[in-house]
Amino acid sequence: MGGDSAPAVEVEGAVAAARGAAGALEVVLVGRRAAIDAELERQGAAGLPVSVVDAPDVIAMDESPAAAVRRKRGASIVVAADLHKRGEVDGVVSAGNTGAVVAATLLALGKLPGVRRPAIASLFPTVKDPVLVLDVGASLDSRPTDLLDFALMGEVFARHVLGRDRPRIGLMNIGEEQTKGGEVILEANRLLSESPLHFIGNVQGRGLLRGEADVVVCDGFVGNIMLKLTEGVIDLLAGVLTGELRDGVIRALAKQLDYAEYGGAPLLGVNGVVIIAHGSSSAKAIRNAVDVAARFVDIDLDGKIVDSIGKVAAGDDR
Questions:
Q1: pLDDT at 247 over 80
Q2: 303 is a domain residue
Q3: Would you state the pLDDT for residue 253?
Q4: What's the domain range around 160?
Q5: From the CB of residue 123, how many other CB atoms can be counted at a distance below 10 Å?
Q6: Residue 307: inside a domain, yes or no?
Q7: Per-residue b/e over 81-109, b at no fewer than 16 CB within 10 Å?
């Protein structure tokens, strides 16, 4: 119920996902039943494996996420997270308030063993293949060990979802030299250097856009600024460029940002499958987010993350 055009776009995308899965996927729509039922009728969804769970409340974009999650137990994202906790669904997709999604799913599902902080992972365009950046907003004031965990989770994602055989891991910094950065970055650099990961060292902003790494880790404060700046630059290019040049540039960037049609950003580190879609998501993006959530369940991405973090914690090579 939290997207810009909810629930019309969410229902359309979910129905498309159910139709395309040929019975291999069941979608549970959580929100205000009357509004959802009306959209299901408009989509001709009778007979599809799509059900509705009523949730009368909605957490608005301008509400305090933590307070709203505790106060509005009937909010759609809270109810969806509780369904996941009880095992009635295998994953959650939301285009609502990002902070509320993080708060609700953390409260209901907890964290994976060995993970102190979750991370939102997002794909950024480069001159080569897209780069996975995490965290882009779930965790602020990260510790060096958190950045190591982000790298381990990102590496698993890059291998099993992006198909990168030996992902190059970079640490976002103001310079490439190992001596650059504050205490947290210096210690994170040391931890990453001593890990079994293919750590290539510090990466600057321009290095990220040049495709120097497959995964880049940073604090959520830094990552969120990078994300919003990237979105702003794309909007700027769309407004400044004209004609065929504009169309070509925007198409190229859009293709990367929709790489393998992810539809949203995964919240890694929670004990479950959570995909955070953009508030302005199209029906296609919602369908893709549902599909990728199902894929994460199928490949047991969480299990692979726990295994990777456990091996590093035990001092083992993989």
A1: no
A2: no
A3: 65
A4: 122-263
A5: 18
A6: no
A7: bbbbbeeebbbbbbbbbbbbbbbbbbebb
In whole angstroms, how large is the CA radius of gyration of the chain? 20
Pair 100, 173 in one domain? no
The verdict on whether omega for the bond into residue 135 sits within 30 degrees of 0, i.e. cis, is yes
Same domain, 167 and 184: yes
Question: What does the alpha-carbon distance between residue 245 and residue 237 come to, in Å, rounded to a whole number?
Answer: 10
Q: Is residue 304 part of a domain?
A: no
| Unique residue bearing structure tokens 């997002």 | 122
- Bridge-partner residues for 202, per DSSP? 171
Structure token pair of residue 96: 């609502």
Whether residue 151 is found in the same domain as residue 232? yes
Looking at the whole model, is its pTM more than 0.85? Answer: yes
Question: What's phi and psi for 217, nearest 5 deg?
Answer: -110, 150
28-32, 146-150, 260-264, 273-277: the lowest-pLDDT one: 260-264
What is the pLDDT, as a whole number, of residue 257? Answer: 56
Amino acid at 239: G
The answer to whether 31 and 68 have CB atoms below 8 angstroms apart is: no
Q: What are phi and psi of 179, to 5 degrees?
A: -85, -5
pLDDT digits (tens, 9 = 90+) for 46-80: 999 999 999 999 988 888 888 999 999 999 999 99
Contact 151, 215 (CB under 8 A): yes
CA 40 to chain centre: 27
Retrieve residue 116's tokens. Answer: 């102190």
Contact 61, 2 (CB under 8 A): yes
Instruction: Give the SS3 label for residue 318.
Output: coil
Give residue-wise pLDDT tens across range 183-239.
999 999 999 999 999 999 999 988 998 999 999 999 999 999 998 888 787 777 777
AA letter at 136: V
Q: Is 127 found in the same domain as 65?
A: no
